[in-house]
Amino acid sequence: MRIPAHSVCTAIRDDIVSGVFERGARLTEEQLARRYGVSRVPVREALRTLESEGFVVTRRHAGAQVAEPTEQEAADLLDMRALLEPLGAARAAQRRTEAHLKVLRGLVRLGQERARRGQGEDLRSLGGWFHETLAQASGSPALTALLTQLRHKIAWTYVVEQPDRPVEAWAEHGAIVDAVARGDAERARALTALHAERSLPLHRLKSPGGGRVRVSQHAVNTTSARN
């Protein structure tokens, strides 16, 4: 397997998220350089980046290894998403372009169609694409990068089940896009917060014995979403 040197970080991250490299597994520069067909220099740089992102830890006398997040750290990921995704939607309502709206509306149409047909695997990828585009529509590269990193970490830490009523979930996506299209930042924020809250019970920790995430006891302010 040979990949461009600048893509080494992405490749290692993808292999960590997908479980090719298990939690706690040792990562040597020599092993990774051989796997991806590159020199040790880009591998070393990639490991530094992944350590800053929290996917890798370096221990004295043991070297680099895949991180092992605690349950608290995993819960924090969902808390951060609950704060940042509504912010991103509010910014999107203020900064989105017509090109963003075209893509978002197209994704909602496809999602609603696949939901009616019960095509779950398609829905998973469409959902990821939807949230990535919504983040990009915020017009904030820093916020987009944070949300992208959070999505990677949540995919690494949790099994995310499909909702029992996917048609309703995609109706929520559609309502968010309508608010973004109208430039209604507060409604976009409230609808996205409600959507994130409703998705919490679908998350199950990947760690042994991991159960579903408990729904937060802190009520989300959804007044604007329901008006």
TrEMBL record:
Q: Where does the HTH gntR-type domain start and stop, copy by copy?
A: 2-69
Which UniProt keywords are listed?
DNA-binding, Transcription, Transcription regulation
Q: Where do the record's region annotations for Disordered lie?
A: 205-227
Q: Identify the PANTHER family for this entry.
A: GLUCONATE OPERON TRANSCRIPTIONAL REPRESSOR (PTHR43537:SF24), TRANSCRIPTIONAL REGULATOR, GNTR FAMILY (PTHR43537)
The UniProt regions of compositional bias labelled Polar residues, in chain numbering, are 218-227
Protein's UniProt name: GntR family transcriptional regulator
Which species? Streptomyces litmocidini
